[in-house]
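ARCHIVE CARD
Drawer: 12
Card no.: 0347
Subject: one protein chain, sequence and derived structure
Cross-reference: see card 0346
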Amino acid sequence: MRKDPVEWILRGLYSAVLYLLLPFTVYHLVWRGFRVREYFQRWDERYASYPDTNAQPRVWLHAVSVGEVNAAAPLVNALRALRPDIRWVITTITPTGSERVRALWGTALDHVYLPYDVPGSVNRFLGHFQPSLALILETELWPNMLFGCRSRQIPVYILNARLSARSLRGYRLLAALIRRALRTVTCVAAQSQADAERFVQLGAQPEQVQALGNLKFDIATPNVQAVVEPFHARVPAGRPVWIAASTHEGEEAAVIELHRRLRQQHPELLLLWAPRHPERFGRVEALARDQGWKVATRRGQQWPAADSDVFVIDTLGELMAFYACAQVAFVGGSLQSVGGHNLLEPAAVGTAVVTGPHLHNFAEISRRMQEADALLIGQDAQQVGDHLLHLLDDPQARQSMAQAGCALVSSGRGALQRTLQLVAPLLPPPVATPA
């Protein structure tokens, strides 16, 4: 393969900048650690320093955080069932993603944090785990890692790939480098045709890209009755319940005001509150108590009491089951420019869904849900409250939305099977055992 001098220069400049910034990663980890204690741990993985063990080849999957891990779980489970002999390594970036990996698979597979994208760390990571195949979820384009995989002849597949118009604009500064890195990828399996077209605009060759659908539609619905039944044993089925899920720090005041407003019309209303980040669990509980409300928590009391006004879900992995306990759900990350969170989870368990206007991370899903009359979008907190109040007042409207949401999730399934058909033939052949 002929050397590309422009690529060599761009990679050199990019890597030099990252090396210069490397001391600041320590500051970043310390700063995050004061908010989330887990950031003080496992720094060796962030810089690709591993115990000197006998490494064996693996299939590598990267899922940045909780949402991507959940989306990947049905695929990983299906591939592991197909080929139980293969050893997997799954990387994340966030501690919550790490916790979710361990909750799903324990020690049945290897898990580390993805190292920083400097050449030394990339080479140590790839040399230690020796992946024969790299599967990257959604939009994780780290140039040195992609070039490193090319150098070691590791095929890379970007699965459930999404690229918003906003993200496309954000790559402008590194456009020349990203275009070259993207063309090292074997295949981009996009969530939608619009995502596929944006990847081509970013620099992928059209023959590299195909639209296979969104894995989030193939969401595995948990046994919600294990939570719903004991919940309703303590909270009568006739009591109105709403849930504020995946909320961020900048949205907490809005949730407080929404609950106060809604309780003016529904004095018995119970709020289930699930902050997006574990470091906010205690703060949200304190905010609710400051209003004079009676608060219970999942870790503390396990269930709301008869007189609870707010129930804080301060655990991970139970959100879908608690969605099923509410009549209506507000999905956060949408009243500020976070970009929204998974709208299909409440829809899949039959709960009417309301969200704010900032949905660039879920543009295709929100569009399809709106078209199916399975989603109400408020342009601000006031309008979100109007929608919540309307649904609490109108059981028929709630039921209609819930049915539309369930039907949309059901009709959208299929990406998992298509992705399996793409990936399964790429798995390394079984190791022959001596006769």
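Annotation on reverse: The chain has a mean pLDDT of 93. The longest helix spans residues 5-33.
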